[in-house]
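help with this.
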Amino acid sequence: MDKGNLEKNNNRIAVVSVLVSDRSEAEKLNGILSEYGDWFLGRMGIPYKEKGVSVLSVVLDAPVEITNALTGKIGRLSGVSVKALFGKM
């Protein structure tokens, strides 16, 4: 999702946490994340092989609507959990 005409002054810092227990969804997840990559400040992924999950953390500087759209798309994937935490600034 390109930044385009969205106003920067409506942006909020958010941390999106993702737990992936179904690795077959990884390609779809990465596709969704790349759609919103212009909004990312950083991304970290940790494979936790002993538990069979991958943990991702993505930091965005984006309008709330963009973060909600991202988490909504991710939340529809099977075997994937997602939550967003918004900063107060």
The domain at 10-86 is CATH 3.30.70.1150 (Alpha-Beta Plaits). The chain is about 25% helix and 40% strand. The mean pLDDT is 92. The radius of gyration is 13 Å.
